[in-house]
C-alpha cells in the first residue's frame, strides 16, 4: 500500500514490504499507516493528518497471493483489499484510490512450468478485482470519490506480445537474465520504466 500527495513525486509514503501478501500482510501495513498518521483532536476523535483531497492511495497486491493460493480460494483475499479500502474511506476520509492488478507472471521463466494453473489464478484474481472496484465505485458513497483500476497485466502483456515495439528482442520474452526478466520472476528496471510511464499517464488522465 502506498499513499502519495498530488502533484506526483512531491511526497510518497510507501508501506509495502518484500514478499507481502494481501492475506497475511495488508492488515499490518494498514496498522502501520494509521500509527504514523492518526492523531486525536480536542474532542478525542481520531483523524488522519493527510489531506483526503490531495492524497491518492495505491494498492498493489496479489502476486504472492496468486502464487500460493488456488483460484477457488482467492475471493476472500480480494475481499481483504476492499475491506482495507473501506477502512481508509471511513477512518482516513480517503477519496482517491488506485488499484493495480496482477501482471502475467505465468509468462515469466519461473511461471512457465505451471503456467496454466497460474494463469487461471491470475485471471480469477484480476476478474474479482475489476468487479469489486466497479462495485465500490458505484456504491453510492460520495461523488468526490475516485477509484481507478490500473492494469499492469495489460502493459506487461503488450511488452511480451510486442517486445520490439519497446526496444526489446523476441528472445528476451522467456529468457531469465535478459532485458525483460531480471531473473526467473522479476522484471528489469527497463520494463518497470515502461509500466511507470504508462501508470503516470493513466493517473494524469483519470485522477
Describe the structure using short key phrases:
Rossmann fold, 207 residues, two-stranded antiparallel sheet, single chain, alpha/beta, globular
Give an overview of the whole structure.
This protein is α/β, with parallel strands linked by helices. The protein has a domain at 2-38 and 46-150: 3-Layer(aba) Sandwich (Rossmann fold), CATH 3.40.50. Helix content is 43%, strand content 14%. The protein has helices at 22-37, 63-68, 75-91, 115-137, 152-161, 189-206; strands spanning 2-5, 11-14, 38-40, 46-48, 55-59, 96-100, 146-150. The strands form 2 sheets. Strands 2-1-5-6-7 form a 5-stranded mixed sheet, sandwiched between helices. The chain has a two-stranded antiparallel ribbon with strand order 3-4. α4 (115-137) links the parallel β6 (96-100) and β7 (146-150). α3 packs parallel to α4 (115-137). The two termini are 18 Å apart.
Order of the strands making up the biggest sheet: 2-1-5-6-7
Overall pLDDT confidence: 90
Radius of gyration: 18 Å
SSE sequence, one letter per element: EEHEEEHHEHEHH
- Tell how many strands the DSSP assignment holds: 7
Class inferred from helices and paired strands: alpha/beta
Question: How much of the sequence is in beta strands?
Answer: 5-15%
Which CATH architecture of the domain at 2-38 and 46-150 is right?
Answer: 3-Layer(aba) Sandwich
Per CATH, the superfamily of the domain at 2-38 and 46-150 is SGNH hydrolase
Which fold does the CATH topology of the domain at 2-38 and 46-150 refer to? Rossmann fold
From the N-terminal CA to the C-terminal CA, the straight-line distance is 18 Å
Determine the number of helices (DSSP H or I, runs of at least 4 residues).
Answer: 6
**What's the CATH class label of the domain at 2-38 and 46-150?**
Alpha Beta
For the largest beta-sheet, the strand count, sense and barrel status come to:
5 strands, mixed
**Portion of residues in helices?**
40-55%
Amino acid at each position: 500500500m502506498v499513499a502519495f500527495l498530488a502533484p506526483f513525486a512531491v511526497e510518497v509514503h510507501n508501506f509495502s514490504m518484500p514478499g507481502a501478501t494481501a492475506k497475511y500482510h495488508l492488515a499490518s501495513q494498514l496498522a502501520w499507516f494509521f500509527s504514523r498518521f492518526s492523531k486525536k483532536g480536542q474532542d478525542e476523535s481520531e483523524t488522519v493528518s493527510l489531506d483526503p483531497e490531495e492524497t491518492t492511495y495505491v494498492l498493489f497486491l496479489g502476486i504472492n497471493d496468486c502464487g500460493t493460493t488456488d483460484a477457488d480460494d482467492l475471493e476472500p483475499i480480494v475481499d481483504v483489499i476492499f475491506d482495507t479500502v473501506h477502512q481508509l474511506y471511513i477512518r482516513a476520509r480517503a477519496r482517491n484510490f488506485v488499484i493495480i492488478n496482477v501482471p502475467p507472471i505465468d509468462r515469466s521463466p519461473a511461471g512457465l512450468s505451471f503456467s496454466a494453473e497460474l494463469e487461471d489464478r491470475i485471471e480469477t484474481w484480476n476478474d474479482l478485482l475489476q468487479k469489486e472496484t466497479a462495485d465500490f465505485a458505484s456504491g453510492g458513497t460520495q461523488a468526490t470519490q475516485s477509484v481507478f483500476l490500473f492494469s499492469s497485466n495489460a502493459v506487461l502483456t503488450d511488452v511480451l506480445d510486442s517486445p520490439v515495439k519497446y526496444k526489446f528482442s523476441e528472445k528476451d520474452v522467456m529468457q531469465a537474465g535478459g532485458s525483460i526478466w531480471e531473473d526467473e520472476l522479476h522484471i528489469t528496471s527497463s520494463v518497470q520504466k515502461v509500466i511507470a510511464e504508462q501508470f503516470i499517464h493513466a493517473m494524469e488522465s483519470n485522477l
